Amino acid sequence: xxxxERKYTILxxxxxxxxxxxxxxxxxxxxxxxxxxxSSATIRNEMADLxxxxxxxxxxxxxxxxxxxxxxxxxxxxMMEEKEREVExxxxxxxxxxxxxxxxxxxxxxxxxxxxxxxxMVSAPQYHRNKLxxxxxxxxxxxxxxxxxxxxxxxxxxxxxxxxxxxxDETLLKLNILLNTHLxxxxxxxxxxxxxxxxxxxxxxxxxxxxxxxxxxxxxxxxDEDLEIYTSGTKNFFKxxxxxxxxxxxxxxxxxxxxxLLSELVQDNLADENNTGIQVYIGNETPVQGMRDCSIVTxxxxxxxxxxxxxxxxxxxxxDYEKVVKNLKLLKNQLDDLYRK
Amino acid sequence: xxxxERKYTILxxxxxxxxxxxxxxxxxxxxxxxxxxxSSATIRNEMADLxxxxxxxxxxxxxxxxxxxxxxxxxxxxMMEEKEREVExxxxxxxxxxxxxxxxxxxxxxxxxxxxxxxxMVSAPQYHRNKLxxxxxxxxxxxxxxxxxxxxxxxxxxxxxxxxxxxxDETLLKLNILLNTHLxxxxxxxxxxxxxxxxxxxxxxxxxxxxxxxxxxxxxxxxDEDLEIYTSGTKNFFKxxxxxxxxxxxxxxxxxxxxxLLSELVQDNLADENNTGIQVYIGNETPVQGMRDCSIVTxxxxxxxxxxxxxxxxxxxxxDYEKVVKNLKLLKNQLDDLYRK
DNA sequence: GTTAGCACTCGACTCTTAAGAGTGCTAACA
DNA sequence: TGTTAGCACTCTTAAGAGTCGAGTGCTAAC
Lengths: 341, 341
Description:
The structure is a homodimer.
Chain A: H1 5-21, H2 27-33, H3 40-53, E1 56-57, E2 66-67, H4 69-81, H5 101-116, E3 119-123, E4 132-141, E5 144-151, E6 155-162, H6 169-183, H7 193-203, H8 207-222, E7 229-232, H9 246-257, H10 263-271, E8 278-282, E9 294-302, E10 308-316, H11 321-338
Helix pairs in contact in A: 2-3, 5-11, 6-7, 7-8
Chain B binds a DNA duplex through residues 24, 26-28, 38-42, 44-45, 47-48, 58-64.
């Protein structure tokens, strides 16, 4: 049996209706809804075929049909094939140009959740194997030295070091030169024990400062490993009865709160090299345990210097995919452009 | 009518039983539970009195009684009066000494939530009216200047400034001196437009850098206003049926997610000068809208240099107050000691 | 002051019933 | 051969009736 045009039209009608109502869709509804001018009986026949093909399901005998994961998948794929949707009628999103990235991303998550009425997540950009760019030691007061470490991608880390006695300007300068000469432009792997020993020796009685700086450098470089993820719109789960029963809701909310569980999603996305931009996971396709009853739509954005991050929407399988894709694309573009202009 | 010893014993028995079960408590249960050796009929009489006094409620005729907010209040007050509970049998909490404060606090929230089975929040410490301590400009590469701003309490802010053309070492040094001379030791209020204008004039063609730094300083000083709050254990709300219905849960979760809404709580706590350490809000006493069906127990911790923060537990009114208080005290002490040893 | 007893109340649960939506199948029609 | 009308059947859902039991308030006796 083949999926001909008419069958697809009916499938589409079923899905659209189900997206709105969340209730199983009956043959009569479709008979009236579409402009095919077919009786409910004919629709019933076609529906039986669609069921046999695996695109729709019957929750129980004598209920209407609901789309299966496979059905959604077909629908989404077709939709994505269509020409890039115009984004014109969307109301302008105001991403205020805050200089603090985390504020911006928090705001982005919130906006996504508000616009779509689903739950949203935004991951901070991940950096690729960082090189050290610059180290600066400064005296803050007689007992404290501030070490500022700048890593490729302009990630900055500060550490306050405590010293037993005040350092002279000269000593500070010497240490600054020592550190920068040895370490600039190096990656984690390139900084080895031999170098560290040599530097400590040169630093003499101030070797503890060198040690402190090295620790901070290590931390600054590996900082990308604990991934920052912002979420918003948790309460939207309650808007969809199929997600809102205690057990499911509790699981979803935990997954959403324990942001580490979402990192799978981010990894999955960033790993996919030929990622065209938007990724849709339906039901069991999800890489995130505990969201098997949901659909997840994600996009990958890229800031300057190869820093990539992920934004995503989590909602019921009967999600308004078009709206969601539109929103994600829009935000993705905004983020892509952010540091490019 | 007076609340005599026997009435209080009965009230206590009602509350204790209700804490466990969450079900209205009947007279027969109390008659068996306490060692007063009173028949259910007598208990019924006393209960009628307690109800008249406002300590307990009847959800409907012919149901048992549940404690009123006033009842809880009495119970909690009496409990707090009792000698400081020993904390001995508590299993040791492992607060690994991470140097990153936010990690530590996140972990603290998680631990609280796990230990108590309620939802937990931890606010990052707030600083009091900050003075500028130190400014440092450094050249990162030919087009970028890094401004590091250190504020009293060793709060550090970094800003990357972009310049049209490379600055000489000499210019940089001059700017550094200019900024530090004018601004060090000043508060937000003390930096006025006249000063800024004077500095810009002295900076000549580099006045845009001065402007950039001033902006960053403003932000660093007011940074305490957008308060960082960490939460954990949202799913625990689902453990208590009285909080788990859709409407309530949705509201609670939103409140918990929109951390700004919790700031009331923190403010309320920090404002209270003669705060002995633990604060209990029952039902309507809460300063947080949308948590009127909950009880909230908070503690204030204090790090070095007068930096204060709040930790808290949010749960149903029938909360195990003793356990919660114990946990909060323990964590408070750990945090208090953190930078003191 | 305490208790036993009794009538009464009211929510929770179970069972039944009816309505309604929707199906599959068959037979007739174009 | 594809489409449609009709009908018996299935299954869910909502409403109603009845029962159970926990718990109360009140009264009268100890």
